[in-house]
Amino acid sequence: MDPTPGNDDADAAQVPLPGTRSTFSLDINGTARTVTLDHRTTVLDALREHLGLTGAKKGCDHGQCGACTVLVDGRRANSCLLFAVAQEGARITTVEGLADGDRLHPVQAAFLERDALQCGYCTPGQICSAVGMLGEAADGFPSHVTPPTATTVPEGPAALGAEEIRERMSGNLCRCGAYPHIVRAIEDVAP
Predict the structure, then answer these.
(1) Mean of the pLDDT values across residues 80-106?
(2) How far apart are CA 88 and CA 96, in angstroms?
(3) What is the distance between the alpha carbons of residues 112 and 103, in angstroms, rounded to a whole number?
(4) What burial letters (b/e) apply to 100-126, b meaning 16+ CB within 10 Å?
(5) Is the pTM of this model over 0.85?
(6) Where does the 2Fe-2S ferredoxin-type domain lie (predicted)?
């Protein structure tokens, strides 16, 4: 067989096998969306390629850069690592779903006010991660730099200084280096 691109064997590899597609519903930004997808389709590819929501970006496609971060049931998640078919019944919120009509989410507004972006590629993931992180801190989840306590039970909201924010946002990379502005924007909205 000739292994060169364009031969019949290579093209056949792109065709899904029988029984590898399902029709299911995803709750995206509060709207039920019915999709028929290959079982291997990630949430990121479903959003971008099938639903036209291009806010979440494909950076590394390995869960290491955070550009694809969305909220799943209020918790931040790398959408490039989640199979879409496994998210039926979950509430997925993308950067497009954070605003309330024309009124930006407070984190979105703070990013604009603090100029917490340069090229903007990582910004949707940074914003979704910040929203999720603020929720985690409000629920009392500690981070690596949270001062230890005598108990493992959260004692209330975590105090979010610059060091705590940097640690909690460390899974989101910015190649432009806008980190100081990102931290200040989050500090502006942190309780």
Answers:
(1) 97
(2) 20
(3) 13
(4) eeeebbebbebbeebebbeeebbbbbb
(5) yes
(6) 22-98
